[in-house]
Amino acid sequence: MPANRLSSNLSRHGGWAKQRPAATMNDTKPYIPFHGAVMPEAMRADSKIQFRCYQGISCFNTCCRQADITLAPYDILRLKRRLGMSSTEFIRQYTVPFQMDGDGMPGVKLRTDETGTCLQLDGDNGCGVYSDRPTVCRYYPVALLALREKDSPEAKERYSLVKEAHCKGHAEPREISIADYRVEQGCEEYDARNREWYRLVLKKKSAGPSVGRPPRASLQLFFMASYDIDTCRRFVLSGNFRSTYQLPAEFYAEVKQGDEALLDFAFRFLRQVLFGERIVQEFADAWDRRVAQRKEVWDARKQMEIERSMAADDQKYTEGGDGYRA
Ligand code: SF4
Ligand code: SF4
């Protein structure tokens, strides 16, 4: 796509994509969405598409006025930096939450105004965050699919084409391979940063009932580690975390400054949280200390409950009402 121009998003065409983040939510066997504008054909990197988008095309900005854009973690990192705000503030101001699956896995989409226009659209100038636009905006009109064939441990990246009536780019006389289109749109950097996250979301989806619905605390952790990198940093740098996990001082120095290093770590940590993989070693006595801390809290709560109940009894028996007055 030409400079200062946008693309669109994979979920903009409705149907399945509204429920699935663009790149990840397919099943254990190849799944090709047949709904609406998505062409029912799994394409490879060397497949050719006919497409061109540029400022001045008759449909310029139309796609951004019907925006339904699912965000991946690296998208948020780039956008919050671009807009000069924390991830927490970005999420609050520019996103809306949704559930990625029936187990309540949290996802986020870019917020639009009441007409469906993306808040990042800069009037007739096109995308206001073009060089930091999200993955699905880069790919459009190509949809990235993660397919895992039965008995295959690895997901394969495949693509499909989205053809929507309002998008006139398909009528432009330019043929380009998907591989070249990805390079042109800067997709590889985004995919490389998000790939581990796509894998773990796909694994969660493929595992189905064998993993089951993660506890609420795990879903909260997934949200924080995936989308709210600045809160995740505070969590990782907290005394509690440091006293639980065996990580070298250089690691803490790196994640203190570097968003990318923290994101890489967060995805690995999520494998531990969601699938019980032993990725980050705990200190030998961490479990005992946690149990002891919890016991202290439980004991304190129990004591408070006893005192509250005794105080209520005292009040009942000394102030009358239905109680006994000495
Ligand atoms: S982020 Fe930019 S390219 Fe993507 S929908 Fe919004 S304005 Fe359009
Ligand atoms: S509708 Fe298609 S051709 Fe038109 S601006 Fe959007 S992506 Fe480009």
Looking at this protein, list some descriptive labels:
326 residues; mainly alpha; 2 domains; two-stranded antiparallel sheet; two-stranded antiparallel ribbon; 9% strand; elongated; disordered N terminus; binds iron/sulfur cluster; Puta_zinc/iron-chelating_dom; Zinc-or iron-chelating domain-containing protein
Provide a brief overview of the structure.
With 326 residues, the chain is mostly helical.
Describe the SSE topology.
Blueprint: H1 16-19, E1 48-50, H2 73-82, H3 87-94, E2 95-99, E3 106-110, H4 135-139, E4 142-147, E5 156-161, E6 175-177, H5 178-185, H6 187-207, H7 216-227, H8 229-237, H9 239-244, H10 249-257, H11 259-275, H12 286-318
Antiparallel strand pairs: 1-6, 2-3, 4-5
Helix pairs in contact: 2-3, 6-11, 7-11, 8-11, 10-11
The protein binds iron/sulfur cluster (2 copies).
How would you sum up this structure, described in words?
- Residues 1-22 are annotated as: Disordered.
- This is Zinc-or iron-chelating domain-containing protein.
- With 326 residues, the chain is mainly alpha-helical.
- The chain folds into 2 domains: 10-206, no CATH class; 214-275, no CATH class.
- Helix content is 44%, strand content 9%.
- The chain has 12 helices and 6 strands.
- It has helices at 16-19, 73-82, 87-94, 135-139, 178-185, 187-207, 216-227, 229-237, 239-244, 249-257, 259-275, 286-318, and strands spanning 48-50, 95-99, 106-110, 142-147, 156-161, 175-177.
- The termini are far apart.
- Residues 1-35 have low confidence and may be disordered.
- One iron/sulfur cluster (SF4) binds next to loops.
